[in-house]
Amino acid sequence: MAYKSIRPGQFFPKSFAGDNSMADWSIEYELIDKPTHPTQNITKTAKFTKSKWRRDDFPDRSVLYIEIQRTVPAGELTKFKRFLGPAQEGLKIGNLSENTTKYASAVLDKDISNYRVAHIEDDPTNIIYIGKHQGSDYSQFHFGAGEASIIATIDRIENAKDNSLVLIEEVENGLHPIAVRLFVQYLQNAARRKRLQVVFTTHSQDAIDEVPSEGIWASIHSNTWNGKLSIASLRAVTGSVPNEKVVFVEDTFVQEWVENALGRYGGEAAETTKVYPAGGYPNVVKVTEFHNTNPAKTVPAVGLVDGDIYDPAANAPLPEYCRFLGGGSPEATVFEYIYDNRVDLCSLIRQRCLLSAFDEERIVQEIESVHNGAHDPHVVFKRLSEKA
To answer: Any idea where the ATPase AAA-type core domain is (predicted)?
Structure first.
């Protein structure tokens, strides 16, 4: 809605039944446009008045909207009707671009170098893809929904102008979880190469796991949160997880640590307590506060704050519903214990980690190697796993 190329009514149409509140709608934007205003943001307003959206002097930008309709089978879409029935004159068939072939093959994990694209000469924007298998051609009418979606979306992105805004509805729709991860990796690659701004909506944890914390925003009851909230933690925040005690922590490492501690020392509480990663400090504090002020909650939540960012001497005191785990990072605490006791623990590590192919001496050596070269405590266990 911030740019001329997208009509507001495409996303916010007004029905004469039930949409009375839209008479007072007004949406304000802050845009960055360095050539126009090098030192400050531009403020624009879109208003819905007299049953029509009105925007004055809005900037232009290439916007690529990848709608949810992309996963509907081709046979159910009216735009493909021209490709049915007798052959029409002016059919143009060409090869996919090199980048489309390269990146779509990587996401789909199959070679599509023999695939082509077709359109009728008088309608160049209405295209259909053609596959090949064992020497025989077949049209997009016979593609799987995920295959068609990936090829079409990547082809559109690769042919988009640099610096475009790309909007994707439900990025995981029709895709296998592995393909979701590969596709999100591709989107980040394309954003860097083509200087794109990519925004997608998702309910997929696989998609979220591939995005850095600063790129993840969650909307909960008119509140927005930035950080690596998991789908499960979002359900806990909104109160949709009933009759459970809730602990919010910063990341999955602390989640496993707390779950193991509850299992060993928590007694009956281990069966009724759920632990959720909610992002680093101060996000974990905000999420815990929101949960505790949510009238839908059943029991209060506790937030556990790491010591790698929060400093009691420099930061504001923690609220009563949060606890400080102590200085340093949890990964470093656990790894330092393993390192200090590596000789005594090596046989147990060999057994529990199924390292029968390695003798105890090598296990001790690899622990020492990681200890000597590890500068970031958050990746020490990743570095250790790579040794195997």
So the answer is: 104-205
3-state secondary structure of 87: coil
Q: Are residues 344 and 304 in the same domain?
A: no
| Number of independent structural domains in the chain | 4
Lookup: tokens for 207: 């998609």
Q: Which domain holds residue 271?
A: 241-324
| Per-residue pLDDT tens over the stretch 210-233 | 998 889 888 877 777 777 777 777
Torsion angle of the four alpha carbons 188, 189, 195, 198, in this order, in degrees rounded to the nearest 10 = -30
Q: Taking the CA of residue 190 as centre, how many other CA atoms within 13 Å lie in the half-sphere pointing to its CB?
A: 29
pLDDT, tens only, 327-378 = 777 888 888 899 999 999 988 888 888 888 888 899 999 899 888 876 677 7
Distance, CA of 87 to CA of 78 (rounded, Å): 17
Establish if 130 belongs to a structural domain. Answer: yes
Going by C-alpha positions, the residue among 258, 238, 261 that lies closest to residue 249 is 258
Structure tokens at 23: 């008479």
Return d(Cα 296, Cα 279) in angstroms, integer. 22
Pairing outcome for strands 42-49 and 52-55: antiparallel
- Pick the last residue of a domain from 324, 348, 369: 324
The string of pLDDT tens digits covering residues 141-189 is 999 888 999 999 999 999 999 999 999 999 999 899 999 999 999 999 9
Across 16-135, the runs of DSSP E, i.e. the strands, are 26-31, 42-49, 52-55, 63-66, 91-95, 116-120, 123-133
Q: What pTM value is reported for the model?
A: 0.66
Tokens at 114, concatenated = 């023999």
From the list 55, 53, 49, the residue with the least C-alpha distance to 11 is 53
Which of residues 43, 59, 75 is at a domain's end?
59
